Amino acid sequence: MNSTPAVTNLFANVEQLSFSTVRLMSLRNDIELGPATGFFYSGIFDGRRNYWLVTNWHVLAGRNADQPERVLHSQGALPNKLRMILPLSFDQPEYNDRNTEILAEEQFLSLYDEAGHALWYQHSRKNEVDVAVVNLGNAFVGRFHLVGVNELSTHQDMAIEIGNEVFILGYPLGLTHFANTPIWKRGSIASEPHIETAETKFRVVIDSTTRGGMSGGPVIMRSKTHYLSEKGQITECKNATRWIGVYASRPNIVGANNAVEDDRRAEVGYFYKNGWVPDIITSGIRGPDIDTMP
Q1: Which residue of 58, 108, 213, 249 has the fewest C-beta atoms within 10 A of its own C-beta?
Q2: Continuous segment of H or E residues that includes residue 183
Q3: Neighbour tally for 42: CB within 10 Å
Q4: In this predicted model, what pLDDT tens digit does every residue of 24-65 receive, in sequence order?
Q5: What b-and-e string marks burial along 11-27, b requiring 16 or more CB atoms within 10 Å of the CB?
Q6: pTM above the 0.85 mark?
C-alpha cells in the first residue's frame, strides 16, 4: 500500500455516494459543448466486476430528447467524446507521505468507433427515454476510486411516495466544491411516482431548483434516522439510502414574455425511474451513428 493514513482517512470521511457521481464535459473533438453529470452503476459482466456510466440520452446524442431534430449546442455541433475527472484510488503510487488531498486524473471517453458507430446504448424506445449508458468494462477498476450507485443503495423497501424528500447529485452550472465531488441539491417528489400515462412520458416531476449541468445525475432518497417501508412499517436506520432515478431536465414552459424566466419560476424538473438503467444494460440498442438523426 502506498497511501498514508491521512489519505486513507480522507477517503473514509467523504460520503461514498459522492464518489458514484462524476462531472462530465461533452466535446466535439477539442471544443467544449457543455457540462453535464454522470454516475456509475456496477455489476458482474462476463464473470468480472464491471462498471457502466449512466447519464441522459440528450447528453450523449447532443439533441433535445423531446425534439431530436433540435441540436442543443448553439453552433450545431454534436459530441463525439466526454471528458471526466476521476479520483485516484488511495493505493496508487502518486500518493506519498506529503499527500493530504485526494488526487485525480483527467480521462476521455470516445462515444463512437472509427466507423462512426455509437459506443453508447439507449433504450429500444430511443429518445423517448432520456437515459443512456456507456459500458466501461473494468478499464478503470483499480486505478480509480469508483463506486456504483447501486452498491450503496441498500434499502430497497423505502416507500417512494409523493412529497418524499430526495437529493439530486450533480454539478449545477459545472459547480463542484471539494475534490470534484457533486453538489447535493435537495428536492421532493412532486407528482405521483407510480402512475404512468402517455401524458407523463415515463417521467416523474421533482420540485427542486435545478440548473444546467445537472442532467444525468442520480436521484437519491436518504433518511438520517428512520424511514417508512413499503409495508407501512417504521424502520430505524442511520442514513438509509435508496437510489430511485436519473435526473433529466426541466420542462419547456413557454411564456408570453420571457420563456427562460418562466422556466425558472416553475422550479421543477423531471427524473426517470431507476429501472430504465438495467433495462438498457440488458436489452438496450446502440445509439445513432455519429451526426445522424435518431
Answers
A1: 108
A2: strand 183-189
A3: 18
A4: 999 999 999 999 999 999 998 888 889 999 999 999 999 999
A5: beebeebbbbbbbbbbb
A6: yes
- Ramachandran category for residue 222: left, alpha or beta (phi over 0 → left; psi -120 to 50 → alpha): beta
Task: Round to whole Å and give the CA distance between 6 and 90.
Answer: 10
What sign has the CA pseudo-torsion 240, 243, 244, 249?
Answer: positive
CB 54 within 8 A of CB 133: yes
| Structural Rg of the chain based on CA atoms | 19
- What cell numbers appear for 220 in the block? 437519491
Domains and CATH numbers, the chain: 5-286 (2.40.10.10)
Helix (H) or strand (E) holding 206: strand 203-207
Q: How far is residue 154 from each of residues 127, 148, 158, 220, measured CA to CA in Å?
A: 30, 12, 10, 11
Beta-carbon contacts of residue 10 (< 8 Å; ≥ 6 apart): 100, 101, 102
Beta bridge partners of 120: 134
Q: How far is CA 255 from the centre of its chain?
A: 30
Concatenating the DSSP letter of every residue in 267-278 gives -EEEEEETTHHH
Buried b (16+ CB within 10 A) or exposed e, 183-200: bbbebebbeebeeeeeee
